[in-house]
Amino acid sequence: MQAPSPISDALAKRNAIVLAIAMALGGSSPAIVVSLGGLVGMNLAENKELATLPVSLLNLGLALGTIPAAILMRRAGRRIGYIVGGGIGLLGGCLAAFGIASFSFMLFCLGTLIIGMYGSFNQSYRFAATDTASEAFKPRAISWVMTGGLVAGVIGPQTVIWLRDAVATAPFSGAFLGQAALALLSMVVVSFLRPAPVSATPKAGAGGRPLSEIVRQPRFIVAAVAGLVSYALMSFLMTAAPIAMVGCGLPIESAALGIQWHILAMFGPSFFTGRLIVRFGKERVTAAGLVLIAVSAAIGLSGIAVAHFWATLIVLGIGWNFGFIGATAMVTDCYRPEERTKVQAANDFLVFGSVAAASFSSGKLLNSGGWETVNWMVFPPVVIALLLLAWQYRVRAAVPA
C-alpha cells in the first residue's frame, strides 16, 4: 500500500480551512433557532405544548435534507451543492423572520424547517474534508472543520443578543434576518472549495457494494448508534434547556449565553480531538464522549441555578464533540471512495432522524415531567451505546494485525 501523497493532504488542508470558515457561518443557524425557537413558539403558538415545535422542525429538516443533499452533491459536486444549500438557508431565515413579523406560527415553523434543510448540507462538511485526505489525516481533517463551530458558537448567540430587537415591530425577527445574511456569506466562502470528484470515472462496479450490505457491517451499526445517541441526547437536553431556564425565572440573556457556552464547548475540543483519536483510538474517544453526556445529565439533576444549567450545557457540549467526531471517524472506516456519498447520507439520515425524534419528545417531556425527567432519560441510551462500543473494541482487538 503506497503512502499518501503530500499533495493530497495539502489539498485536504486547504479544503478543511474553507469548510471550517463555512461551518463558522452556517453553524450559527442552529444556535439562533435553538436560542429563540422555543421562546418565539411560546409567543406565537396557541397551544403552548407546541412551543418547542420550531426547534424540533429544525432537526426534522436536518433529517429530511440529508438524502436530497447527497444526491445533489453526487451529481453536481460538493461546491455547487453547498452553494445551493446556502441559498436554502437564506430562504429559511427570511421566511422565519416574515413569520414572526406576520404573527404566523405556521410560517415561522416552515422557516425553521427550511433552515434545518440548510443544516443538512453543513453537516456533511465534516465528510467533505476527508474526500482528499490520507487515512492518517482524516480524523484531523474532521476536527479542523468542526473548529469552525467554535466561531459559530460566538456568532450565533451574539446575533441573537445584538439583532433580536433590530426590528422594533417584530421582536426576534432581526436575529433570523441576521441568520439569512450569514447563509449568504457562506455561499461566497464555499465557492473557494476545490474538492475531489464525488464519483469516480464510470466503470464496472463504480457504485461499489449495495448500501444494504454496507450498513449491515457491525462497525457501521456501532458507529451509527454511537453517533445518533451522542447527537440525539445533545439535542434532547439542549432543546429543553433554554425553556427550562426561563421557566425557572432566569432571564433570556442567561439562556442565550448558556447556549453560547454550550456551542463553544461543542466545538472547542476539536482543536485536539483528532489527535486524541489518533493516540487513543476511535472507540475510546467516542466512549469518553458518551460518559461525559451522562455526567452532564447528572449535573442537571443536581440543581436549577444558572451555574447548574451552564455546567450541564458545557459538559454536554464536550461529550458531544468526543462522541460525534469519534463516531464520524468510525463511519469513514466502513466505505470505499466510490461508496462514500451514499453511506454518508445513510448515516446522517439515521443520526438526524433520531435527533428529530429526540427534539420532538423533549418538549413534551419537559412540559409533562419537568427538567428532572428530561435528564433521567439520558442514561439508558448511553449505557446501550457504551456496551456496543466495548463489544466492537474487543472484536477489533482480537483480530491479528
Record keyword descriptors for this entry.
401 residues, single chain, Growth Hormone, Chain: A, mainly alpha
Describe the structure.
InterPro entries: MFS, MFS_dom, MFS_trans_sf. GO terms for molecular function: transmembrane transporter activity. Keywords: Membrane, Transmembrane, Transmembrane helix. It holds the Pfam family MFS_1. The chain has 401 residues and is an all-alpha fold. It has one domain: MFS general substrate transporter like domains (Growth Hormone, Chain: A). Helix content is 79%, strand content 0%. The chain has 16 helices and no strands. α7 packs antiparallel against α11. The longest helix has 37 residues, at 340-376.
Topology:
Layout: H1 6-26, H2 28-44, H3 53-76, H4 78-101, H5 105-123, H6 125-128, H7 138-163, H8 173-190, H9 211-215, H10 218-247, H11 252-267, H12 270-280, H13 282-300, H14 306-331, H15 340-376, H16 379-398
Number of strands: 0
How large, in whole angstroms, is the Cα Rg? 20 Å
How many domains, as an integer? Answer: 1
Shape: globular
Indicate the mean pLDDT: 87
Decide which structural class fits the backbone: mainly alpha
Helix content: over 70%
Oligomeric composition of the shown chains: single chain
The largest β sheet comes out as: none
CATH superfamily: MFS general substrate transporter like domains
Proportion of β residues? under 5%
Distance between the termini: 15 Å
Q: Tell me what the CATH architecture is.
A: Up-down Bundle
CATH class category name: Mainly Alpha
> Helix count?
16
CATH fold-level name: Growth Hormone, Chain: A
Helix-strand pattern: HHHHHHHHHHHHHHHH
Point out poorly predicted stretches.
Answer: 1-7, 199-204
GO molecular function: transmembrane transporter activity
Transmembrane segments: 16-39, 51-73, 80-98, 104-121, 141-163, 175-193, 220-247, 259-278, 285-304, 310-331, 343-361, 373-391
Domain Major facilitator superfamily (MFS) profile: 219-401
Pfam families: MFS_1
